[in-house]
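Per your request, structure below.
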């Protein structure tokens, strides 16, 4: 049970949520950046742990790291080109190395190899490209002497919390407006009380009244963060699925086939859109800050596709599918904005598309973007009964005609049909 003060904190974040979340709900697509000492190893950001690398062997990576100047500009330029609206960068990952100029420890980018504040460069780059700014911060810390001891030693816990809160304070104080505070792994402490999460997040909000905070400090806060899968949170709860591009968050030179295709990223975006969520797609820059070629190429294609079809994804969307339309269809899937349904067709059927189990009355069908209205027919064969899997199903069919013989989209073989209903489907229920 939260105390009275904690409850007051929860109530005040609830009261401001809709306003704070506005840009996020419209944004749909962001870039996650995992960059740290581990990039030099190229064996996943958990290499220190997977290989149990002793501190004495890992720490020299801090002096050896010499990223090129202003690498963040390349990331921000690519994010913009890809149609992303925000970025989230690891300011400190589990390895415990701070990417900013900090007074909390000299195990930081300004005092060691890079010799400069990499968070500052990132923030400047985001601003130059008009992207919202997120800071990832790992609560778990494999470097801090109290990072594990805090579980069993009260004095160590106090020191570690002071360190943690000091880091969060610097991040929230030194870079102007920050849009997202993205915590990660809250090992080893077992409750928000043990982490002093209420106090820490209240401090962050005092310094950054518009901030959005994720759910990884053992408080639900503003957004859910499904990881490596895209699944909507319950209605009314905001969420963002974070996904690797190639199976690793930190730079890892995997075979090109391991990178998601543009087509796959677009399908991930559709799934997020259908559930009123966002997609935070990760790129792991190389040690010098340059980006893997595969990510650059594929994101450029995603951007090309979004410039033509983005209306189906960006902006306020409603949940899809809706009752009376099929949840499963092998040729494509849905997103929705009020009366407008978007059918993201991944498997082109030829000149005619039939969608079974589709009941709402249709006003107009167009091939997106801007195509002329297509002929369609809605019918029902009452003599035949199809059973689904326990889902109520009908024989209602929507048949759309006059389509081109081959898929009109050459970027990702994902064409979009805009189906406008006669009535708002939520109002119909
Ligand atoms: C995880 C991993 C981590 C990654 C993160 C992204 O919890 O520990 O390496 O940063 O998820 O969501």
């Amino acid at each position: 049970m939260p105390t009275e003060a904690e409850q007051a904190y929860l109530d005040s974040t609830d009261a401001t949520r809709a306003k704070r979340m506005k840009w996020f709900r419209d944004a749909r697509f962001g870039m996650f950046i995992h960059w740290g000492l581990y990039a030099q190893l190229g064996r996943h950001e958990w290499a220190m742990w997977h290989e149990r690398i002793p501190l004495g062997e890992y720490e020299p990576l801090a002096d050896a790291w010499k990223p090129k100047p202003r690498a963040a500009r390349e990331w921000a330029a690519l994010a913009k080109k890809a149609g992303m609206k925000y970025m989230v960068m690891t300011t400190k990952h589990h390895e415990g190395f701070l990417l900013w100029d900090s007074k909390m420890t000299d195990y930081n980018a300004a005092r060691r190899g890079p010799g400069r504040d990499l968070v500052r460069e990132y923030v400047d780059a985001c601003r130059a490209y008009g992207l919202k700014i997120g800071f990832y911060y790992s609560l778990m810390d494999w470097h801090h002497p109290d990072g594990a001891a805090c579980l069993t030693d009260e004095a160590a816990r106090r020191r570690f919390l002071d360190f943690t809160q000091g880091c969060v304070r610097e991040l929230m104080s030194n870079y102007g407006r920050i849009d997202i505070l993205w915590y990660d792994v809250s090992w080893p402490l077992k409750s928000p009380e043990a982490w002093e999460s209420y106090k820490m997040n209240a401090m962050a909000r005092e310094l950054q009244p518009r901030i959005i905070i994720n759910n990884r400090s053992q408080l639900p806060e503003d957004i859910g963060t499904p990881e490596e899968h895209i699944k909507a949170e319950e209605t009314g709860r905001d969420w963002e699925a974070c996904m690797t591009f190639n199976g690793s968050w930190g730079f890892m030179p995997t075979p090109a086939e391991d990178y998601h295709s543009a087509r796959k990223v677009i399908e991930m975006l559709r799934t997020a859109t259908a559930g009123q969520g966002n997609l935070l797609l990760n790129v792991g820059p190389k040690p010098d800050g340059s980006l893997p070629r595969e990510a650059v190429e594929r994101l450029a294609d995603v951007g090309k596709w979004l410039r033509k079809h983005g209306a189906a994804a960006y902006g306020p969307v409603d949940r899809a599918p809706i009752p009376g339309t099929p949840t499963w269809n092998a040729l494509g899937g849905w997103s929705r904005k009020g009366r407008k349904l978007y059918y993201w067709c991944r498997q082109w059927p030829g000149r005619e598309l039939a969608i079974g189990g589709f009941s709402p009355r249709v006003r107009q069908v167009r091939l997106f973007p801007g195509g002329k209205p297509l002929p369609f027919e809605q019918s029902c064969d009452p003599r035949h009964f199809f059973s689904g899997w326990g889902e109520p199903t009908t024989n209602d069919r929507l048949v759309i005609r006059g389509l081109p013989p081959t898929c009109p989209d050459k970027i990702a073989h994902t064409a979009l049909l805009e189906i406008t209903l006669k009535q708002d489907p939520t109002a119909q229920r």
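Residues 34, 45-46, 184-185, 227, 242, 249 surround alpha-D-glucopyranose (CB under 6 Å).

Regards,
D.
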